[in-house]
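Input chain follows. Return structure tokens only.
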Amino acid sequence: MTSTPQDFQALWHLPSDQKVTVVSPTAAVAQKPGDRTKTLLLQIPYQQKLPSSGALTVKQGQTDPVQGWHYDNIFTREPAPAVSFNRTGTATTILSVIAPVSSTANVSYTTRWSKDTYAVTFTIAGRKTTIGITPGGAIYRVR
């Protein structure tokens, strides 16, 4: 922990054939055009408010600093999306969920506190599952 605020990021690097669409400050969808699956990237507000802007960004083919590249070998690179969940502060906790699902699946989640455990219930294509996060940061499946 530092006494001076700084920037924090959780980066998720994706294949170069993926197109990323930011759907909200907390969600992005990555999909290869024409594919029957998609990858949902979520950042769930947990222990810290999201910034008013720039909470989720996508970097691709950036040169300064170098970010958003896929190297086929040490001599060849292609632009590839990197999804960044961003925070600023003296410390941070970034809770991210990556869910590969059918391209037609609807995904949603709700959060609640149950005593000292933070519970996140996901509904994916009509099916529910819940995870819990303990005060120490352990994540476990509730149901």
